[in-house]
Design brief:
The protein is mainly α. Helices cover 76% and strands 0% of the residues. It contains 13 helices and no strands. It has helices spanning 2-25, 27-41, 51-70, 84-106, 108-111, 113-118, 124-151, 160-188, 192-205, 218-224, 228-241, 249-273, 277-280. The longest helix is centred in the middle third of the chain and has 29 residues, at 160-188. It starts with a helix and ends with a helix.
Length: 281
């Protein structure tokens, strides 16, 4: 059994090393794909990249109106200058990045079917570009919003400075691994992409994005701890609001290793299915 475990670890490390070498060899292609994602996303738009900030801000205002003013949600550990809207902002932007990355990543290969059929390149980079573009835009918007909140007097702890990039990096790996599986499946089963907008709202309400885990009944808390978003967003909010130190060094290393392993598994699964893409498309 130990031999099988060691073999599995070696195989995952080879996948990661192969992906890194492939990325370096095709870095110019990846850069071109990222630039194309940006151009396509805001083609003909007067506001351009500002939409990456304005759309989440509109959702933040809507959720704050519903949960803070109508339902009057109160955070059990909240102190002065820590309203619900601040707590919500810490988790909403990562969720928006994950949601957009999955939707765009799932359809990336099918949307570029002509490229896959006529050009010799690794189609996985189409998914990588879609996921990376979504995360880059929303991470930048998140940083701007948190800076504005701090300038307005919001109480955020210094632990946020190291917890924030680690959380985004781990979530990026989760999104990439999931998007690779979805993109490969979408080539063969075209129901994946239209099904995602129906499934993602269910995932939102089954995750502690709009509500704190502490307000969930204890029997359900035992279920929600297995949700990856719980393990990523709860430490981020605890570190930012001074409710705890967030991840320790060991916890950060473990979380990043697990998320990177999922991304490597998605990379492996994508390439297992990729040889027949041309025929399926």
């Amino acid at each position: 059994m130990n031999q099988d475990l060691r073999s599995g670890v070696r195989h995952r490390l080879k996948c990661v090393r192969g992906a890194a070498l492939d990325f370096w060899a095709q870095r110019h292609l990846v850069r071109a794909l990222l630039w194309r994602q940006w151009q396509q996303r805001y083609a003909g738009s007067a506001l351009g990249g500002l939409w990456a900030l304005l759309q989440p801000l509109a959702q933040l205002a809507l959720y704050a109106l519903v949960f803070q003013w109508i339902f009057q949600v109160r955070l059990p550990q909240a102190g002065a200058n820590q309203p619900y809207v601040l707590w919500l902002a810490l988790g909403l932007w990562p969720w928006m990045a994950l949601q957009e990355a999955l939707v765009r990543g799932a359809g990336a290969v099918v949307a570029h079917a002509a490229w896959v059929q006529k050009v010799a390149f690794d189609s996985a980079w189409l998914v990588v570009a879609a996921v990376a573009a979504a995360f880059a835009l929303h991470a930048l918007g998140h940083a701007v919003v948190l800076a504005l909140l701090m300038a307005g007097g919001a109480a955020l702890a210094p632990h946020l400075l190291w917890q924030w990039p680690l959380t985004w990096l781990a979530l990026l790996a989760v999104a990439l691994g999931t998007a690779l599986w979805l993109a490969a499946a979408q080539v063969y089963v075209r129901d994946i992409e239209p099904l995602l907008p129906q499934v993602l709202p269910l995932v939102l309400y089954a995750s502690p994005v709009l509500y704190p885990l502490a307000l969930v009944p204890e029997p359900l808390q035992a279920v929600l701890v297995f949700n990856p978003l719980t393990g990523l967003l709860e430490p981020l909010r605890a570190a930012a609001l001074g409710w705890g130190p967030g991840w320790s060094a060991a916890q950060a290393a473990g979380a990043l290793a697990l998320c990177a392993g999922w991304a490597a598994l998605g990379w492996w699964g994508f390439h297992r299915l990729a040889p027949d893409f041309e025929d399926a498309l």
